[in-house]
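Friendly challenge for the regulars: who can give me the structure tokens for this chain first? No prize, just bragging rights.
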Amino acid sequence: MAANSASNLFQVGRSLLRGLNTSYSSGILRSTQESTCNNLLAQQIRTFIQMRTNLKVVDNSGAKRVMCIQSIKCKKGARLGDMIVASVKEAQPGGKVKKGQVVYGVVVRAAMQKGRCDGSEVKFDDNAVVLVNKQGEPIGTRVFGPVPHELRKKKHVKILSLAQHIA
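First reply, four minutes later:
Bragging rights claimed.
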């Protein structure tokens, strides 16, 4: 009887210790998961502008937001200065462009970094586009916000002339 109660006490003690160990280890596990999640939130994933990417429109053509349908000339995706085909998702009433219309656009701001000749890198906080026609001429008459000078190499000089600030 005494041996039986001693073995029961030993099993109860072991189960209590096991419970403490699991709660301690789950606390460590939980804290590492939280820190990993916080790191991912702090570090934005910056990739190509690809299909179904939402972009802000930074001209006065009447569109507010477009969704990329296809990148022209590049299968991976679009970067600064590349042309895309997009669908208008939000538009201002009375604008030149209507909601649901398929338009061409030039990427003027991209969150993905791009290296420059001098070794520096340029990246922006958002993805933005200027709407153009098939010949590459802008639909709007003004371009808002900074525009990188790399557009000159891609033959989009008209967009640079309309821009308020060249970065």
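The first helix runs from residue 2 to 42. The two ends are 86 Å apart (CA to CA). Your move, everyone else.
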